[in-house]
Structures are given as C-alpha cells and as structure tokens.
C-alpha cells in the first residue's frame, strides 16, 4: 500500500473508528467489546438500526464482539413481547451478539457496588422529597447546597440502605445519592440519585427488589461488568459521561469509556417510542409492524431488505451533529438493492379488456426474463392468447401527439410478446369503455421481431385465462410534513390521510401464485412489492415497498 492510499484510507475512517484504531495501536485494549443496550419498552426503529450497525459493525471490523444488553432497570415499562421483537430484528438485520445480558442480571452486583460507595463515604441516603431535591440542586448558574442528610454516618447509611432494599419504606420516601459535588457546573454531578424505591413487579426479577438503580448507576457499571471497551451512545448522554467516569474510578472497576454520536432522525416520520406507541394505541396504524411505521418490523413487512437498511446506515454514517435524513435516501437504498434482486412480474391494477381479434392460435407460451439486472435469475413462462388485460390508464381515446401508449389506431408492444394495434373501442350505453378490439402482428414477437415496426411504448399485461385477482396495498409516507414533532399542535394532526390506498381486484400473472412472504418483486412500471404476511392462498396481498422513481421529489413536496 502506498503512503498516499494509506492516508486516503485513514481519512475515510469515522471518528469512532479512529478512536478504536488508536486504542488498539497503543495497546490500551487487546480487542474491543461493544454493546447494543435497548430498553425493552417498544419496537426497534430505523434510528436503532443505525446504532446496531455502528456497534456490531465496529466490533466486526476490528475483530471484537458485541453484547446485546437489555436495559431493563425500569420495572414498569418493560415487556417480554418487546424483548422478543428486538432479538428478531437484530438477527434479521444480519448481526449476531456474543452474549445476551440483562441489566437486571446485575442487580446484586450493583447493590454491592452501592454498599462499597457508602463504605467509602461516597454515597448517602436522603429523605428529601423530589421537589426538595430539585430545589436544593440550584441552577446551571447557581450552585446547589447539601442538606443535613448528607452528614449521615456510614453506619446509618448502610442500615437505611438495607432497609430500603428490604421494603421498609414507601415509594419516594428515601433515595440513595452519590456524594460528588453540589457546586459542579455540570448539574448531573450534583449528588445524582443512584437508587430509588419502587415497589413494582419486574419482568425478570419479580418482586425480589424494592429498590431499582437509576440509569447513571446501571449503565456504566453494566458496561464495566461486561468489559465493554467502547460504550457508544447518543449525544444527550454527554453530560452523564462525568458521572460515568467518576463511578468507575471510585469503584475501581474495569475502565469502560463512553463515546457519543448524534442521533439519526428521518424525515416524514416520528421516532420516539412514546409517539410510535401512541400511533399504535390510537389505531392510526395497524400495529408496530404496520408497513408505514419506521420500525424495523414495519420496514421488513413493507419489503425493505436488511441490505438496504445497512446500506442506509453506512451512507448516513456517524457524526456529532444531529440532522434529519431525507426519507428519500432510505427509499433510494431500497431501490438500489431491490433493482438487483427483485423478480420482475406483471400485475394490472385497473384492468381493461383487450381482445386480439386476429389471434387464431391456442395458448402460446412466451418467456420473459426474471431480472434483466441478474442473468442468473433466468426466465419464466407466460401465456399469450386472445383475451388479455392491460392497464386502463394505458389507453386514451383522444390522445395527444406524444402519447406512446395505446389509442385508437396506435400501436404498442406488449412486454415479452407482440406489437398490437387498437382497432375499435367497445362502450356501454353510458359511454364507458368496456373493451378494446385490437389486432396483433404475428411476426413481431419479442426476441424474433421481423416486422420492421417501431413502437415507442411497451405495456405490461396479463392473460385473461390464467391471471388471478390480488389485493394491492399502496403505502406512502405516514406524515405530510418533514418534522411532524417540530410542528405546532399534536404530531398526529400531520398524518398523511392517503398513506394507504387499497386496490382490490388487480390481476396478477400466474407466476405470482408461488410467492411466499418476504419475496420481493418488481411489478413492471409499478414499483417494488412484497407479499404481506396476512395473505392466504385464496387472497393474496402485496405491499408496495417503494415506487420505481421518487414521485415526491418530482411533485416538489
Ligand atoms: P426513545 O427515546 O425513542 O425511547 P431510546 O433512545 O430511549 O429511544 P433505547 O432503547 O434506550 O431507545 O436505545 C437503544 C440504543 O439505540 C441506545 O444506545 C440509543 O442511543 C440508540 N438510539 C436510539 N435512537 C436512536 C437514533 N434515533 N439514532 C441513533 N441511535 C439511536
Ligand atoms: Mg433510552
């Protein structure tokens, strides 16, 4: 490798990769350990996907490993359903964790750490109410002040803390605080709360505990217990880093280090779990995995591939500045990958009957390529005959000059089949178009065309004899504005009322009868689609993943 290309490579490292390389080069760590620490209080979303790709990606790149740690220190909100969905989503994204841990596994160890701090005179039991504690804390410009409880003896603190554990006190009666610095410019350093009393059932520890550790006294210690070398979190934890380091230093435990990057936000959606839960509870969507949700399960049901989501995470990268990424970029990543892997199929959404009046033969078998981008994908058989369906929108009775689809007297090619000409329009008494009578050119067959006829339009079609009805769910973005949370009023006021358009009675070519859930297709001229898990052999439902082109960009919305 030349010097120039070495620097080139160096430049393309993100700031976390640089930190890791420095730490490995200096021998600070022999190998790295990262963790992904979701709180099991909701389904994972595309922002979490960034964090997953980052944590697992770093460990993979540098030969380390990643733990999955459920941050279940808050007993009231966590549910097993969420734990299961989180596991499934990470696996689906293509990552494997080395160990599965729960912060609640460390409750005994954390209790012991707390006792150690008390013994060192570095923690005390405080009887103040939360209002009193807030008032004594001061403001960013005014120092806080300690109260009389901070003067308690080690023995008294040990006894009271034990009694807190044993359930002698009610919720809110006492807390355990670290004795750090009530005058610190960092408000979080002003004797932060380490433990609170909560008589609540925990999904794993049941009713064993009457006290639960706060975030600041669980996260860093859990990292340390697991020997996590690089603990990566989002920017709002910058002020917590000082407490993180202080506790590790005072407890003299493994020196995990915290690094922060900016949250990844996506336009035209909301990401906070609270808001996503509201969408589910208030039935704006059908569930956490509704294909309009920015959740990983929603994206999966929508037809996104893990590859496209990883590509998206890679493209937006990591940085220190928060920004909103255009939803269009995620859709672009989907198109990029789907174009390579999706099988091409024909589905007519709004059928118009075409009769080929000069077609005498029996059913004819044609071959159409499954994917022009992938020669290995082969071809499929299709049948052609006298009665077909084309898209109603592909016909215009009075067409402008530059109209290249079908019109009276005009000619088009039917994909993988023949060139046809529209000879006659059949209407009912009210003037509705019922059928087109067309003729075909027998010597114009795709691949062996000797007709010498040049047409500009190619239409998708299905054979009336073997097509079958399917339901199409056309999904669009869930919100009409870029940042629904940043707008006036409740974010639900900005829901896109046309985010789901259901089309019944679309007609599909027979090859689609073999579709299984999560197969991906390109319906020619229509977009990318996937089979919905609610489909049955009697009722196929296809979800639109994305259109073929970015229609929003064009519409200037
Ligand atoms: P919410 O605020 O919606 O409840 P959270 O950040 O509390 O989300 P956690 O389950 O605590 O959700 O997150 C697990 C990990 O994912 C954390 O390390 C968190 O920093 C990271 N994460 C969450 N949201 C994003 C995001 N939008 N971009 C990048 N990382 C994120
Ligand atoms: Mg959180």
Key attributes of the depicted protein:
Glutamyl-tRNA Synthetase, domain 2; 26% helix; alpha/beta; 557 residues; binds magnesium ion; Rossmann fold; Ribosomal Protein L25, Chain P; binds adenosine-5'-triphosphate; Gln-tRNA-synth; elongated; seven-stranded mixed β-sheet
What does this structure look like?
With 557 residues, the chain is an alpha/beta fold. The protein has three domains: 248 residues, 3-Layer(aba) Sandwich (Rossmann fold); 164 residues, Glutamyl-trna Synthetase, Domain 2 (Glutamyl-tRNA Synthetase, domain 2); 111 residues, Beta Barrel (Ribosomal Protein L25, Chain P), CATH 2.40.240. It is 26% helix and 24% strand. It is built from 14 helices and 27 strands. The strands form seven sheets. Strands 12-25-26-27-23-24-13 form a seven-stranded mixed sheet, with helices on one face. Strand 8, helix 9 and strand 9 form a beta-alpha-beta unit. The longest helix has 16 residues. The chain binds adenosine-5'-triphosphate and magnesium ion. Adenosine-5'-triphosphate binds next to helix 3, strand 8 and strand 10.
Distance between the termini: 47 Å
Secondary structure tally: strands = 27
Strand content: 15-25%
Structural class call reads: alpha/beta
Named CATH architecture of the largest domain: 3-Layer(aba) Sandwich
User: What small molecules does the structure contain?
Assistant: adenosine-5'-triphosphate, magnesium ion
Radius of gyration, taken over Cα atoms and rounded to an integer in Å: 31 Å
Which shape, going by the Cα principal axes?
Answer: elongated
Instruction: Tell me the name of the CATH class of the largest domain.
Output: Alpha Beta
CATH topology of the largest domain: Rossmann fold
**How many distinct helices?**
14
Order of the strands making up the biggest sheet = 12-25-26-27-23-24-13
- If you average the pLDDT, what whole number results? 94
Q: Percent range for helical residues?
A: 25-40%
Spans of at least 5 consecutive residues whose pLDDT stays below 50 are 4-8
> What's the CATH H-level superfamily name of the largest domain?
HUPs
Largest sheet: 7 strands, mixed
How many domains, in number, for the residues?
A: 3
